Amino acid sequence: MVPTPEEAYEIVKKYNQGEFHLSHARIVGDVLAWYARDLGFADEADYWKTVGILHDVDFELYPEQHCQKAPELLRENGVDESIIRSVVSHGYGICSDVEPEHVMEKVLFAADELTGLIGAVAIMRPSKSVSDLEVKSVKKKFKDKKFAAGCDRDVIARGAEALGWELDALIEKTILAMRESPNVA
Prior knowledge:
By secondary structure, the chain is mainly α. It has one domain. About 60% of the residues lie in helices and about 0% in strands. It contains nine helices and no strands. Helix 2 (about 20-40) packs across helix 6 (about 105-125) and helix 7 (about 135-145) packs across helix 9.
């Protein structure tokens, strides 16, 4: 089964209670849907969004087995194997050996960590918003490894490289995507 984004969110809620994880699922889903439209895959936007919502389904309950428990949880819910593969690929080189192949998987790999960094930078601004956030502000904090230390800069950089994009382009597009998300404060 290929769940709708709404069904995907209900699956995530079975295994995640914390507002941070639930919010992150919605934001990454929105960002992937934006990228689908931006990159010429508008007819697949709901599919991309579903993958984005489900990507951390196992993280709250099984942080030490992230991307390893996800297939089991998703199969219990009848989720299609193509979605499971995409979900697992976002942990490539960290907690998974499934390499992102499709452009959607590469975007998920790159943007997952980046949404966290962008969100952390936005919170530090007077506006507390992405609406006036600029690439240079994110780049400055990107270089400061102590700021939002949980956001893996190497993953973000490898994701940009896998997409064949400059880091600035990835940051700019992800800021734009987050601006359109109703789930970003």
